Structures are given as structure tokens and as C-alpha cells.
Amino acid sequence: MEKRIEEAIRYLGVKKGAADAGICALVERSFQELEKEAEPRSVCRIFELRECGEETVQIGTMKIQSRSLSRNLKNCGRAILFGATLGIGVDRLISRTGITDMARSVALQACAAAYLEEYCDRRQEEIGRELEKEGGYLRPRFSPGYGDFDIRYQEPIMRMLDCAKMIGLSMTDGCMMTPTKSVTAVIGVSPVKERCPVQGCEACGRDDCPYRRRPD
Predict the structure, then answer these.
(1) What's the pLDDT band for 204 if we cut at 50, 70, 90?
(2) Which domains does the chain have, with CATH numbers?
(3) Cα(81)–Cα(184) distance, rounded to whole angstroms?
(4) Nearest to 59 by CA among 201, 187, 190
(5) Going edge to edge, which strands form the sheet with 56-59?
(6) What CA–CA distance (Å, rounded) separates 114 from 4?
(7) What are phi and psi of 45, to 5 degrees?
(8) Residue 90: predicted pLDDT
(9) Residue 207: pLDDT above 80?
(10) Cβ(86)–Cβ(112) under 8 Å?
């Protein structure tokens, strides 16, 4: 079974190995529909990073107060601001489907989340390969809303990336992104290779890692 199909089934709340043939077929059809509508785009910029104590970091001109993010970025001299979206076509497909077939709409939601994650992983791997040529190694992505990294930091991240112009990504007053199947993130660039998997801390068994992404 493809990894993204496994991920979509997990997003649906189905336990590993418990998905029957009907669920698997629904997920596969949903990915086929998404492939026709999705227009994945991303943007990133590298900024100097300064540690300002145990709970605050400064990325470019943006100061962020977050203990969990600060821990994740410890000993990184630079940070990448990253934004990605699947495009408005995916939102329209999910909304249109929800009017007539809620089960399909839910499956599309789960598949879109897995599709976006897969796309971001691929882009991060590409960025990582380029930076490794100059001795830079990436930490796992860390998005606003995770742990104590306030979701309101999405606004300055998107502004610093000029997301509206570059990839058509904007944000409502309630901090909801448009298109909704989008993400922003911070990625630390370290001079030391930590062997962090691109899938993030959840895919790593090193509980003792000092840079581990935790929800606290």
C-alpha cells in the first residue's frame, strides 16, 4: 500500500490494518480526483536566526516567543520560512462534493491532508539537498499552531514570504488560510547533521533528542 494512502486512512481515524477494501477504494478514487484539481505551489526564504534566551528566537525581523520552537531551532544559525498550498481547485472540489456525498467529501479532506504533507516532504527534501552542498542540514518542519507556537505567527510568516503574490495564499481575520489546504512552517538550518527524517519527529524513535518537536 502506498504511503500516502496509509496516511489518508490514518487521517480518517481508521486503525492501521483495519481498512477494508471499500475504504481503500474510496481513498484511491479520492486521490485520483485530487490529482486533476490540485495545483501544488510553494515558496521559501532563508533568514538569519538569533536565539534570544530559552523561549524566544528572532528570524529576520520577526521575534517569536515559543519554548518548543526555540528548542527545535537550538544551535541553528539560519531558518527557512516555508509556505505551500494545493490551490483553490481542491477547496472547490471538497465543497462541491460535500453537497451530494458527505462520505466522499470526508475522504477527500483526508486525502488532501496526506497529499499536502507528501508534497511538503518532497519540497523539503529538494531544499535539503541543495543546502547540504554548503554544509547546512534541515531540522523537521515546525508549523504555527503546534505546541506553544501561536497560530497568529502565520500572518507575519506569510507576509515575509509574500505568499499572496507568490503562491496565491492569503489568510482571514480568524487566522484561516485560503486556500484551506495550505501550510506555513519554520525549518531550522543547522551546521550539524542530526539525521532528522523529513517526515518529522513522529517518524523518529529518538526520544532523547534535544531538538525533538513536542506538543508542550
Answers:
(1) very low
(2) 3-203 (3.40.109.40)
(3) 8
(4) 187
(5) 62-65, 56-59, 41-51, 78-85, 182-190, 137-138
(6) 6
(7) -145, 145
(8) 98
(9) no
(10) yes
